[in-house]
Amino acid sequence: MKPFELDALEATIASALRYYALGRDNRDLREQLQTASAGQFVGQSPAYLALLRNVREVSASSANVLITGESGTGKEVVAKAIHYGGPRAKAPLVTINCAAIPEQLLESELFGHARGAFTGATSNRKGRFAQADGGTLFLDEIGDMSLKTQAKILRILQEQSFERVGGTRTIKVDVRVIAATNRNLREEVSEGRFREDLCYRLNVIGVEVPSLRERREDIPVLATAFLERFALANRKEIKGFTPQAMDALLKYSWPGNVRELENAVEREVYTTRAAQAAGLTPEAMRLEVERT
Fold this sequence. Notes:
The chain is α/β, with parallel strands linked by helices. The chain has twelve helices and nine strands.
């Protein structure tokens, strides 16, 4: 408003720039989340928006992160968003599922091995920590890791150095660790199955991913995003869900969370092909969850 003071004008401009920067950052982060998740990380519920804010804050740091939540909630998606939204975005993001690799092989996968370290080791091999140097290592399902391997992970977090299996040379690395688990690590610590000191080292910053039951308002938008993606991939013209199908989606408990919802929509997109060939109308189709 005229007349105005120069100081007031400067303050108004500064406030507008801050508001613009905040909106730009939120838009950029949403795009990163969308790219990383291929449609899994969308929503509008209070629980989703709180997670989005938490991810934005965590992304700006280089501290270790522990992501917790039920299976199928999208913990790996969150890990990708944290990495690509942070200062290490241009460096590697290396992922390993600790529950999917036998204990006797996990150490070699993590730290690499020297030639001749064991039968079949015909050459030196880089481990995941070395591959992630300068970037981020995502340790999925870390709650399933043995105590022996946990001790070696702790040393790397403390010293940022390690030796390959069968090697003698100390290798220095600069790695941010993001770990995830569907277990309650405090209970695991009290039961003696997880090291308390490692838990503290990993949980510098904690991120809790809500279950789909805690963000039911997001079911329609998630289901629609999945439907659009699978319909496009299969070159099928599907306009949306019938009211009965959407009602079934909203009433179901989804114990498998977002992953189960994604699989249900994908399955129905495939079965719709046969239904359309048989001459059935979209109104005649129902999601599998409605039949179970």
